[in-house]
Amino acid sequence: xxxxxxxxxxxxxxxxxxxxxxxxxxxxxxxxxxxxxxxxxxxxxxxxxxxxxxxxxxxxxxxxxxxxxxxxxxxxxxxxxxxxxxxxxxxxxxxxxxxxxxxxxxxxxxxxxxxxxxxxxxxxxxxxxxxxxxxxxxxxxxxxxxxxxxxxxxxxxxxxxxxxxxxxxxxxxxxxxxxxxxxxxxxxxxxxxxxxxxxxxxxxxxxxxxxxxxxxxxxxxxxxxxxxxxxxxxxxxxxxxxxxxxxxxxxxxxxxxxxxxxxxxxxxxxxxxxxxxxxxxxxxxxxxxxxxxxxxxxxxxxxxxxxxxxxxxxxxxxxxxxxxxxxxxxxxxxxxxxxxxxxxxxxxxxxxxxxxxxxxxxxxxxxxxxxxxxxxxxxxxxxxxxxxxxxxxxxxxxxxxxxxxxxxxxxxxxxxxxxxxxxxxxxxxxxxxxxxxxxxxxxxxxxx
Length: 448
Description:
Order of helices and strands: HHHEEEEHEHEHEEHEHEEEEEEEEEHE
Shape: globular
CATH architecture of the largest domain: 3-Layer(aba) Sandwich
Strand content: 25-35%
Structural class: alpha/beta
Distance between the termini: 40 Å
Helix content: 25-40%
Number of strands: 19
Radius of gyration: 22 Å
CATH topology of the largest domain: Rossmann fold
């Protein structure tokens, strides 16, 4: 471990992720060892963990050290990940179809996931957007080739595309647990790639890929700048529209696409998002269109040029989150919220499987207001929560860390707290969110 610690110091110095990083680490060697062990454990146990795992690195830090420590800890995270896996070099797109290299990821309890990874255009002076593009539910070899062809045609260059093939035609769903883990790996590795813009990640797809992209957008809305389902239509309980706050949402479906009620479900999404945009102007940007005279085949070229105009907001003041299960699995966090203990007990209360969180972080008054409700799957009935714990990670963009923070929970003032920045908050938020824009120096814990 001693030799590896010295390698970490070299990595921190050589990666060059920021001019303020120091040759001499601000962290103790024991903290570095604990951090590396913690990061390895989180990556190894990602399929089993369902809540935030705390660290024993409780070293307090000075406000003047936060930026340098964020860079240093991110460099260690980068090093630990790089030992395991990185994204492959993308195949440069050419005119017409060619023999693009087909890569493959192993999945947990499922067949492997083949995928194309391509780049359109050159890097230039700015980082590239990345599109996750999901195919429809025909024979998977044919669907994969068709989706590659569409990806090459879309007018969004320069860009990168991750184009997966469904692992198993008997389980033709893009939101099942084994592929959830693949998307989380893709997001994690994309955040580490210096040529990808972490605020320009998008998900889109046609038909079955439309269903999948709508669900994934609601589940991972804190990562995606935008989402573009096409020729799809999910019931809103499968993709709660409240989660699309701060996400640019495009939805193109044929007006005559009556199969499985796709046109009606698309209209339902439009009505819901129209209402939310009216209540929260500017927060629910969307472009939902029923293409006149079209059935299941529509003009697919309109989506990605619209999406690529929008960037992600990684640290919004307001967070609305319907915490819901997808294939029986819940997220451990969303934006700056982390689940420390599940607020749902399906064994004791099977009619209620999700929770609504509404959080307002007001830096002007240094007040965090939290409201929660236990919801049924259709989100038509609610109850008060009786259990659960969350952590709210914070930085100086959201609140003033130098002052006490007032906490109001379900309309009750529960007091003020002095928030102390610690190494543990930085480390835990890196492992939980794997996001360079969400490395938080402090957290507030709350029993629900």
